[in-house]
Amino acid sequence: MPHQHENNVAPINKAHSGLIRALRNLLPPESVLVDAEDLRPFECDGLAVYRQLPMVVVLPETIEQVQSIMRLCHAQQIPVVARGAGTGLSGGALPLAEGVLLSLAKFRNILNIDADNAMATVQPGVRNLAISEAAAAYGMYYAPDPSSQIACTIGGNVAENSGGVHCLKYGLTVHNILMLKVVTAEGELLTIGAETLDSPGYDLLALMAGSEGMLGIIVEVAVKLLAKPERAQVVLAAFDDVVKAGEAVGAIIAAGIIPAGLEMMDKLAIQAAEDFVHAGYPRDAEAILLCELDGTHAEVSEYIALVRKILTDSGATEVRTATDEAERQLFWKGRKSAFPAVGRICPDYYCMDGTIPRRQLPHVLRRISEMSVEYGLAVANVFHAGDGNLHPLILFDGNKEGELHRTEEFGQRILQLCVEVGGTITGEHGVGMEKIDQMCVQFNSAELTQFHAIKVAFDPSGLLNPGKAVPTLHRCAEFGAMHVHHGQLPHPELERF
Amino acid sequence: MTPAPMSETDNSAALQQQVLDAFQNTTPLNIYGSGSKAFLGNAVQGQAIDVTGHTGIVEYDPRELVLTARSGTTLREIEAALSEAGQMLPFEPPHFGDDATLGGTIACALSGPRRPYSGSARDFVLGCKMLNGRGEILRFGGQVMKNVAGYDASRLMAGAQGTLGLLLDVSLKVLPRPAASITVTRVCSPEGAISSMCDLLGKPLPVDGTCFHGEQLYIRISGSAQAVQEARGKIAGDVLPDADAFWHALREHQLPFFMRSGALYRIVVKPATPPLNIEGAWLLDWGGAQRWLYSNEEPASVRHRVAGVGGHVTVFRGGAQGDAIFQPLSGPLQTIHQRLKTSFDPKGIFNRGRLYDHL
Q1: Residues 6+ apart with CB under 8 A from A356
Q2: CB 3.0-4.6 Å disulfide test: which of A323, A418, A427, A437 passes with A355?
Q3: Yes or no, beta carbons of B148 and A430 under 8 Å apart
Q4: Other beta carbons less than 10 A from residue B27's beta carbon
């Protein structure tokens, strides 16, 4: 992978030796990392084109230690970037050369499973899947299931408001959390939300979900648990035309059915996945839909029959129902391996993450395919069809001169297209570093100013993950000067640079 | 069938002008819809700014499961449009008046009996367009299900009681109405009801409403026709005739239980919390997570007892003048609330004091 945005300068200098000494007074020696080789694993998150060694990595294991670190950094006005498992895909956990990287990796205990109240209390470094595994003994599970659920942590899920393939029916992280304990930039411990279904005052829980480490350090999370459905069954349908597949999605929803999962893949993604895991996908199809129904036995039987009929009526060339759990897992395996499968057929790929109103799918796919020709870069499309969240994977070779740059430009144009058709620049991966310029496309100056003011309400000194998620107005002015649309400058009230 | 005539007026320019004037002159404003929920919250001193003229469903495509409407649109009109397409507002909002508006519904963020099973008012907010205290029109969120661009300021408006801004339009996720629904009821002790309701929460059954009141436990089962039949066999009790009327009366506080006088407390606790030993008349909704109490006990005493089990209390109706209606906030949270208020409404013109006297 090329490192175009890499900054490899060893950041430590004398001015910081006082801070390091103070951190070593707060934490055991092995929990304060300063050598370049120890810092290396923390230089990037899942978006590896952005890399930066932090000044220091700290690995606290108690809330009190986090508070002490934050008080110290606040006193010295040192910025802090929080990090979970580092699986994020937008550079949200990218370290700062002059900052502390605070890893929550040692907060890995499940504190309580309260089946009577359908909730679990966990530390932020607990892996997403581990919650469902622990709840399984009670016949329950935690619903949001991002593809990285085997590795990603709940603290990071809250920071990114992560989704997954079951969002349409079960919601995002924001819909599945009850309470957070958060350490502020000043080192104060706050309880946000409550163990009850609502809490007094403003809905700060909604603000925290997806706040990308900008508002506070999440040190404890109470999540909702759901009863595990009696049965889940998946139907696979093949189409000779992506438009027909898109229409089938609308037809299923119009029939009053909310599938647990509804995923679409296009030809390139199908072939890559099939070659990789042999899921039995029809290699010649232009698109496939995976439609999972869950619920009670009778409900699933009723809906499977209905969905099969809708798919056939919508022009599916083939409709298959997984007959047992093994086949169900196999159908899903192809979808869940789509990203690494695409990774096998090209040196590099760049995963985009926009959401669009579903009815815009044919138009958006056509435009992406036109741009693919224009840029000379292939695209595989994986689509959370139920909720309109599109993941075009742009295939490129970072060793070819200028190809990463072209890829990024192509990606930016896809995101702008999403905004043009009434969608958004990020459905579930977050803004981080990656999409900070596209924020200028989606929001105007007054809105961005409001976002900055929200940050200031929590973090008046601006020490938490500065420079991510919300662009400065200056940055937008510079970006706008480069990208003039329809002859109109965005943010016209600003001075140009 | 001829659709009922609907009023559709974009009044945003006039509303913006009123806010701009108020900002200029630091005139406090009292945002007003139909007044159906004016009882909830402290009285607001301020010039009335009437949102009821800002009406109309702006966009509704049933296949997208998203509806966008102006804030003065009545819930009645929205629910009629949804019903025609076989859909619904999943949080089952209480109207508390014939002309309840969308804006007031979201600002108050009240949710009906389905809340623990499908989500709250705020859960279904996808985006909004609003006027801040400087008279600027801001858009947050959008009309899509998944959107993590920027802080989730649209959901922040849910329950803010208009103290952060004036909602112009709101986009909501909507869902299909269940094809079938029945309610079963049986005699139960309060302890037995709480235990049964919690047991149901942990079971994969299509239950979407549970209530305990007057020694009767009520369980609503909704879903596909076959799912309802199947679940009926697993849940003991007699089928309640005219169940829709019961759940409607519960949601709208029209059951005889709610005809009492005196203070009505809304108590929110973890659902498995045993019956609280506070003298008065009780009704349990939301599977035991939301409990209604008519009691002569002082608010401070009720709050103290409920705080002991990790819950919170709203003096929903009939509180004495000067009593805090909403549960007071801790010091650090109060600071953040004040800063957020100032960031949206620097001169403090919107619904001053309605939620808390410091906002």
Answers
A1: A364, A388, A390, A418, A421, A422, A423, B144
A2: A427
A3: yes
A4: 15
Cα–Cα distances (Å) from A399 to A222, A376, A396, in that order, read 45, 15, 9
CA distances from A311 to A296, A300, A323, A332 (A): 22, 16, 18, 18
Q: Pick from B151, B163, B316 the residue to mutate for testing the A interface (most A CBs within 10 Å).
A: B151
% of chain B at pLDDT higher than 70: 98
3-state helix, strand, coil in chain A (%, to 5): 40, 20, 40
Distance CA A372, CA A473 (A): 31
Confirm if B232 and B184 have CB atoms less than 8 A apart: yes
Distance of CA B231 to the CA centre of its chain: 28
DSSP reduced 3-state for B289: coil
- B307 contact A CB<8A: no
The dihedral sign for the CA sequence A221, A225, A231, A234 = negative
Nearest to B332 by CA among A204, A154, A207, A177: A204
Beta bridge partners of B66: B61, B173
Distance separating alpha carbons of residues A59 and A81, to the nearest angstrom? 12
Residues of A in contact with B146 (CB under 8 A): 163, 167, 172, 355, 384, 387-389, 424, 427-428
Neighbours of A175 (CB within 10 A): 19
Distances (CA, A) of B72 to A9, A342, B33: 57, 49, 7
Calculate how close chain B gets to A139, using CA atoms only, in Å. 7
Average pLDDT on A279-303 reads 95
**Integer Cα distance of A352 and A475 in angstroms:** 22
What does the alpha-carbon distance between residue A57 and residue A39 come to, in Å, rounded to a whole number?
7
On whether any CB of chain A is under 8 Å from the CB of B155, the answer is yes
User: Two tokens at A394?
Assistant: 């742009």
Reported confidence tier of residue A7, pLDDT bands at 50, 70, 90? low
Q: Quote the tokens at residue A362.
A: 């044919």
pTM for the full predicted model: 0.95
Q: Say how far apart CA A440 and CA A241 lie, in whole Å.
A: 35
Buried b (16+ CB within 10 A) or exposed e, B299-326: beebbebbeeeebbbbbbbebeeeebbb
